[in-house]
């Protein structure tokens, strides 16, 4: 069986390759990134909905997102995806140099995946020498490739400036709604705080007001309640879904479930 690869080609460029269906990571992305599906499909779970990124599709993922992925190889047997990070420092420098100032938020669709124009398509093809290791990406070259990506994005849709150059602080998100929609993501409290527009101390304080328990305790209880529902009513085995609810270890899940409900998962069926 051939191994999947996940390579960091240079500081901001990541290349993923797989040869069989693979559950990807679930991650918190603090920066925008631009991706291109070279082969196969990526199924992304974002904001409670499924988005399918098909072959030869460009996707712009906005910063401060929680994403879980499943990678599906094409019929040829390959899965290939390139992602380039558009970090805040580079974007701020670009905005200053080009006198770009954004005073309003982006109001378009959040699902920013689209067919690339010829320029964007050629751009991603131009990254092949770095991926194939036939050319070394010096820091200078890496920065030029990122700046080129910014130029081409703005050329394809000028309204993207309201996304890329919005450096305002995230607005406060409704804590109860957000946590109930995202409790299954296995990320730390600090990431949850950023995603809801709060410092860690403010997040913990607001969380206590809304839920009357600390975040870690609430997350564990909420995940176990969801697991109970799935086992009892959907008749699924814990081994098939425990990671999707944010549990890292199956034996610890069984222990926690028995402790909370007084029965094993087998006894619940």
From TrEMBL:
Keyword Ribosomal protein: no
Domain HTH araC/xylS-type: from-to ranges: 173-269
Gene3D superfamilies cross-referenced by the UniProt entry: Homeodomain-like (1.10.10.60)
InterPro entries found in the cross-reference section: AraC_XylS_family_regulators (IPR050204), ExsA-like_N (IPR054015), Homeodomain-like_sf (IPR009057), HTH_AraC (IPR018060)
Protein keywords: DNA-binding, Transcription, Transcription regulation
One MF term in the entry's GO annotations: DNA-binding transcription factor activity
Keyword DNA-binding carried by entry: yes
Top-level lineage group: Bacteria
SMART domains in the cross-refs: HTH_ARAC
Name assigned to this protein: DNA-binding domain-containing protein, AraC-type
